[in-house]
Amino acid sequence: IGITGQARQANDLCREIRATGKGQTYICAVAHQNMAAMAQNSRGPIIEECDAGLLKIVVPIFCGADFVGAAGGCGLLLEDGEVDDFMINKTTDLPEEKVLDLAGSVATMTRAQAEELAAFIAGEIERLTAACRT
């Protein structure tokens, strides 16, 4: 469940993937559920790729010892990664040519930049949840 009531995609490809029920269900939601569980168990940020090959950062949110959710973002490409156009096509039925064309709208990020962003998000969550520890 989102907390802002707004959904923004990092690129046109993600917008198309999320517009299909199968893309939202079998790519986006699965990646978030799995990575949120990983973040909960590790109690720290997770930086991985979704099945479409796109970067996803998930940072756990704890209020005291209670896991209350996760924050983060997705939709960029690690500089050494690649969009899995075949998987996207088979999952969403989007034409492979369209997926390849839309993949051009995906910006890249280095692993170091992703780690810096994850640390920033974790720091902001820590700041906002400080009252939970008192």
**Span between N and C termini?**
26 Å
Instruction: Choose one word for the global shape.
Output: elongated
Counting helices, strands and paired strands, the structural category is alpha+beta
pLDDT < 50 stretches: none
List strands and helices in order, with pairings.
Elements: H1 12-19, H2 21-42, E1 46-49, E2 55-63, E3 66-78, H3 85-92, H4 96-103, E4 108-109, H5 111-128
Features:
4-stranded mixed β-sheet; single chain; elongated; 134 residues; alpha+beta; 5 helices
Notes on the protein architecture:
With 134 residues, the chain is of the alpha+beta class. Helices cover 48% and strands 21% of the residues. The chain has 5 helices and 4 strands. It has a 4-stranded mixed sheet. A hairpin with a 5-residue loop joins strand 1 and strand 2. Helix 1 (12-19) packs across helix 2 and helix 3 packs across helix 4 (96-103). The mean pLDDT is 92.
